[in-house]
Design a protein that fits this description.
Radius of gyration of chain A: 24 Å
Strand order of the largest sheet of chain A: 1-2
Shape of chain A: elongated
Distance between the termini of chain A: 64 Å
Order of helices and strands of chain A: HHHHHHEEH
Largest interface: A-B, 36 and 26 residues
Structural class of chain B: mainly alpha
Number of strands of chain B: 0
Strand content of chain A: under 5%
Oligomer: heterodimer
Number of helices of chain A: 7
Shape of chain B: rod-shaped
Helix content of chain A: over 70%
Number of helices of chain B: 1
Structural class of chain A: mainly alpha
Order of helices and strands of chain B: H
Chain lengths: 265, 43
């Protein structure tokens, strides 16, 4: 992991990787969405609305996966002071929040024809909404700490408070995962687990394409945002150095004139 | 009940969100990297 601690080494890998992840992800998710819309049969109970599955499930997984990434980055930043961990956390936050919002919105749209309601304050939906608010809190804290230059190691990372917030917020992840088991819910129980799926393969197969596609696209967006943060750090460092050099040159000139004046006097 | 308006709305909003974030992230990256390169050349 520390082999990638050097931002220059990271950028050498990230620059060629970004377009591959972006275009590869986009191709897979478009293919998966088209297959899900045009090739799979309607569900015997839910009818055509089951097709929302192909965007709702990847969005839910990436919303939760994003916060997992932020929590791991916070831990790495606090324990090993990895210079890119805080930058990665900041870069994950916005796409993670977007996918959480997409999960909530598509779930609400899916709920109307299947449950007869847009929203229900049950465990799954409420805990997912809490995740979205956690993202908003993290984004605000990370921006404030970056603007104040209080990031750990002062490299565009996030402050210790922000990192602790990320770790504490991770408590919500198992709650989201187990909410449909612990509490009564309109939301269906776990249908895709490590032991397999209760969804018929005729409906399930395009989900693999959209999950992989959205994941690659998510990776590309995180790399783009990390590159932007690293470039902004460079700009700030160079501007500060130029200002210091300008100031010292100015002081040198005025000091020289003063010395000359002193000699004349 | 016709489900297709709901499906179209769900896919449309997802496309809008992902496209918007793609453009915003790409523009922010290009702008920052171009400025950083310009400052490096200036030195």
């Amino acid at each position: 992991m520390h082999a990638f601690a050097n931002p220059a080494r990271f950028l050498r890998i990230a620059r060629p990787l970004t377009p591959w992840l972006f275009w590869g992800g986009l191709a897979l998710l478009v293919a998966g969405a088209l297959c899900g819309l045009l090739l799979t049969p309607a569900d015997y109970l839910q009818g055509e609305s089951v097709r929302i599955l192909y965007i709702h499930v990847p969005a839910a997984w990436l919303g939760m996966g994003g916060w997992t990434g932020i929590a791991v980055a916070a831990l790495v930043q606090m324990v090993w002071r990895h210079p890119l961990a805080g930058v990665a956390g900041r870069a994950i936050a916005v796409p993670g929040a977007l996918f959480t919002a997409i999960c909530l919105v598509t779930g609400s749209i899916w709920g109307r024809p299947t449950w007869g309601t847009w929203w229900e304050w049950d465990g799954r939906m409420t805990s997912m909404l809490v995740l979205l608010f956690l993202y908003f809190g993290y984004i605000a804290l990370a921006r404030a700490s970056a603007a104040d230059g209080r990031g750990i190691g002062d490299n565009g990372g996030v402050s210790r408070v922000t990192a602790i917030f990320a770790l504490v917020g991770a408590i919500n992840l198992p709650i989201i995962n187990r909410s449909v088991v612990w509490w009564n819910s309109l939301h269906q129980g776990p249908s895709i687990t490590v032991r397999g799926s209760t969804i018929d393969m005729a409906i399930l197969w395009p989900l693999g394409l959209t999950v992989l596609g959205f994941s690659l696209w998510f990776g590309a967006i995180v790399l783009m945002r990390m590159r932007a943060i690293l470039a902004e750090n460079k700009i700030e460092a160079r501007l500060a150095r130029m200002a210091r050099e300008g100031l010292s040159e100015g002081m040198g000139e005025s000091g020289g004139e003063g010395a000359r004046e002193g000699r004349v006097a | 009940m016709n489900h297709w308006p709901y499906i179209i709305a769900a896919y449309g909003l997802t496309a809008l969100g992902t496209l918007g974030l793609s453009v915003a992230s790409w523009r922010a990256m290009r702008k920052a990297e171009a400025l950083a390169d310009a400052l490096r050349r200036e030195r």
